[in-house]
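Please describe what follows:
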Amino acid sequence: MFLKSKKPHLAVIVGCIFYGMNGLFIDRIHDMAIAPIIFYRLLFGLLFLVSYIIVRGRTSDLKLKKKRRSLLLQGVLVVACMLLYFICLKITCVSIAILLQYTAPFYVMLASPLILNEKIGKESITALFVAITGIFLIVRPESLSGIELTGPYMLGIAAGLLSGVIFAALIMNVKILKTEYPELAIIFWPMGVALLLLSPFAFKVSPDILYSNLKVLVVFGVVSIGLGEIFTVLGLANLKAQTGSLLALIEPVSGVFFDIAVLGIALSSETLAGCALILASAAFISLKGSENIKKREKALF
């Protein structure tokens, strides 16, 4: 699919747009705690993925090889990242949770030369600072003034920072797994591990409430986890970790635009300016990446 057409940048962007729909579904789910929502989101997403693999006749891709611990680690990282993000969200606020999780490109840029032997390009540094400026404008840091740094609040900050570190580790671990496994295996097995770890939360909701939210949960899982995961991992596995982490910043931007278009939420000019900066950063890094692909193709030819 995207591997043959050399469009991994587009794959990450499309996947992040699907992820950006999270707010639309959360707004329509009632009387359920976050943990059961995450579980059923994973469950229906995994069922969609299994159907996709069977229809395409790709079950052989799921054969376990080496680096099984890295697959297990990926599943643990998925769960840890989600739970830490929501802990930060609950203790602090949406703005801080977004800001801290999307510090991930900094960690990727620092660690990828050591772990993945990737060189830090000038274009990556430029795009990173433009994108982070956009994130600051989206969350409007001036609205965070006057916050008391109490013990529980500092715990929330720590959870948010850790979610950013783990998000970076997720991105880099995809690159490590790609040397051994096809993309579908990198999606399937960690999702299965995450579902198993979250299974106790399946019983934290009554059957009546589950049934009333079932349609939304099914679509949520298919769109966010199924389609979002397929496109995102297809892209990340075939890009430099630095590039993939920068393109992942499209997710909060798409969330903002869905808030405007569907939920009718009014947004400030600063927020829209921040979105524009992130989109410009993504366009820049994508164009540079496309140029590099063409250069490699010419060299091989």
